[in-house]
UniProtKB/TrEMBL annotation:
Presence of the UniProt keyword Translocase in the record: no
Domain of life: Bacteria
PANTHER family: TRANSCRIPTIONAL REGULATORY PROTEIN
Protein name, per record: AcrR family transcriptional regulator
Organism of origin: Microlunatus parietis
Domain HTH tetR-type: 10-70
DNA-binding region(s) in UniProt: 33-52
Keyword list, A-Z: DNA-binding, Transcription, Transcription regulation
GO molecular function, one term: DNA binding
InterPro entries linked to this entry: Homeodomain-like_sf, HTH_TetR, Tet_transcr_reg_TetR-rel_C_sf
Amino acid sequence: MARYDKDHKRQTRERIIEAAGRRLKADGIDGSGVSTLMADAGLTNGAFYAHFASKEDLVGAAVTEELRRQTASFLKSVTTREDLAQFVKDYLSPEHRDHRVDGCPSAALLDELGRCDTATRRAYTAAMGELLAKIADVIGDPGPATRVKVSSAYALMIGTIQLSRTLTDPKLADDILEEGVRNVLRILGLNSP
């Protein structure tokens, strides 16, 4: 029997989490079984419990990692209010709408995350809280009122993407994205000309 060092186990776990993040955004939590998630990582079902206590454990880890990546990307690209306005425009774009797998985990999974266990929802809450705090910092007021405003704006962004993805009328779907951009920029005090 081959023995692997701790680094191999860590790398394998990371590979599973990365593959699961993409699959979950594509097919949803309920649409992604353990065997599919493991196959995406190039592993068998038998290896699953060496890394995770349950599917919920993997979902929590994958969503947390997806949000960590989103926050890291945000921090690299958003340092000014102008950058934040561009972030909103990019988020509420046809490209983001049409490429769910490469996009925001909240927009892809929020409805299902609400039905997850408390540990998964706590992991999501902590990771989302970090992103929202970073957005409030860019606005220049990390106080509680701004956090509420940022939370409301982000919820509008998520709902706008979800609705736009659902519609079969391409013009209406695009119009909803454009109106979403205007509304979010107004809420955040980032009105553009």
